[in-house]
Write a structure and sequence with these properties.
Elements: H1 3-16, E1 19-25, H2 30-38, E2 42-45, H3 52-66, E3 70-74, H4 81-88, E4 93-97, E5 112-119
Parallel strand pairs: 1-2, 3-4
Antiparallel strand pairs: 1-5, 3-5
């Protein structure tokens, strides 16, 4: 089961509980994006390639737009900048998730995150 499949299943469960789910990726094939949207999640793309200030502003826009109170980050290292930039945007509840199961070929830099808004 791939990472996006886990995101899809979790999104469906959270949506059934009335929770807004926003999935934020740096890159995602459009076929997978459509599948995640069909599963009830909002999907946003934010690239760190445009610099940290752009990334920070875009995270802030997403957090405000969806009234995010919780964020779950799928990361390969605790020192990744995304959670810290999110904390600076005022999100108080941040959860770290590792989905590589200790694989020897983990791919750092393929960070994605969940941002949970208020119940819809």
């Amino acid at each position: 089961m791939g990472q996006q499949e886990i995101h899809l299943r979790l999104s469906r469960v959270l949506r059934s509980l009335g929770i807004t789910v926003v999935l934020v990726y740096t890159d995602l094939p459009s076929s997978i994006e459509h599948r995640l949207r069909d599963g009830g999640a909002a999907v946003e793309r934010v690239s760190y390639a445009n610099g940290p200030s752009h990334y920070y502003r875009e995270l802030g826009r997403i957090i405000r737009q969806y009234s995010c109170r919780w964020c779950i980050f799928v990361i390969s290292t605790i020192s990744a900048p995304s959670p810290w930039l999110t904390k600076l945007q005022g999100v108080k509840h941040i959860v770290y998730e590792e989905l590589n199961s200790g694989m020897l070929h983990a791919r750092p830099g393929r960070n994605s995150s969940f941002a949970f808004g208020r119940p819809s």
